[in-house]
Structures are given as C-alpha cells and as structure tokens.
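Q: Given only this backbone (190 positions), what sequence would you predict?
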C-alpha cells in the first residue's frame, strides 16, 4: 500500500489514539528509533504523531479504525526494521476508562502495571489464571486489560513476575501507571 501524505500537525484528522508497541528497545533488543516510528505512523496518514520515552508509546490522530491501523503499522514496521512488533491500539476514551476501572486505586503508581492485551481473552483462559496464587501481590483482569499490583515493587516480585500470562492466549504489553497517565494527558492535549 503506498504511503499517504500525513495531515498537517494541529489539524483535526480522525480519532485520537494511543498506540503501544510490545518489546521494543528493551535490553538492547528489537531496536526501533522513535523518529522512525513517528515517520511510519505519518506514512500511514496519521497526524499529530508524538512518542513518549523510548519504549514504543505513541499518541496520534488517525482516520483508520484501530484494528486497521494496528495491522498496517505492524506490517510497515516489520518491513522497515526486520522484526514485527506487536501493536496494541486504544482510543483516548478507552485509556481513560481503563484508568477509571483500576481495582487498586490506592496502589503506589510505581508498583502497578496495566497490561494491554491484543484482544479480549477467552473466559476459559481467564479462568485458568483465576486460581493462581500470587499473594501478597495481586492481579485483576477486566476486559482486555490486566492490572498487576506488585506490592513490594516490580523488581522484587517473587510470584507475580512468574504469572503465566501466555495461558491467556493473547499477547500483552504492560505500562506503569505514570506512563499511562502521561499518555492520556498527551492524548487529551490533541
């Protein structure tokens, strides 16, 4: 598909979306310059493209439906960098709803991650994790998000870090509460 000219910055062009890439620029693997990520989004017709930190967080406007943008971005990045990062796309309203649904509202934001799944897992898959004991840590699955509460911090996790998320049958990319709040702030400023 040929690249389209992006809409000029500041021009309202489509829905405000938050795009999260899984596993880029982590531990020196799957390197993806954020400038290339922005350029790739713009080549797909996105406007007001902005990245946050180096781990594949993007806020943009797109006239494409989220699922279509996700598929096109995965394909375009796969061609550009030689690996295909998984992409999760949510509307700004979805992100706000995810934050509002947080079952751990009193948790320290540095000890709470929210995992965004590529799709809603099957009920049977969720049930397989329901009996996994990770105490004193905790997790809750709501729709296509998983809230991970690391009571003593992510780096000291003994049990939650070993939660077999692969049993959900979907891919997950997680962000801490600070990052998610910043992405929502950026999205609302568009």
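A: Predicted residues:
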């Amino acid at each position: 598909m040929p690249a389209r000219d992006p809409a000029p910055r500041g021009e309202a062009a489509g829905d405000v979306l938050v795009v999260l890439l899984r596993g880029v620029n982590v531990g020196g693997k799957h390197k993806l310059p954020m400038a290339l990520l922005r350029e790739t989004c713009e080549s797909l017709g996105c406007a007001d493209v902005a990245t946050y930190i180096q781990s594949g967080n993007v806020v943009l406007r797109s006239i494409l439906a989220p699922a279509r943008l996700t598929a096109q971005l995965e394909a375009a990045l796969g061609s550009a960098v030689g690996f295909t990062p998984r992409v999760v796309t949510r509307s700004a309203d979805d992100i706000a709803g995810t934050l509002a649904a947080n079952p751990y509202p009193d948790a320290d934001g540095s000890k709470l991650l929210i995992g965004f799944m590529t799709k809603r897992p099957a009920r049977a898959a969720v049930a397989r994790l329901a009996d996994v004991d990770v105490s004193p840590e905790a997790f809750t699955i709501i729709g296509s998000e998983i809230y991970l509460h690391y009571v003593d911090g992510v780096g000291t996790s003994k049990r939650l870090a070993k939660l077999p998320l692969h049993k959900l049958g979907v891919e997950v990319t997680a962000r801490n509460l600070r990052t998610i709040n910043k992405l929502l702030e950026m999205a609302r400023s568009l």
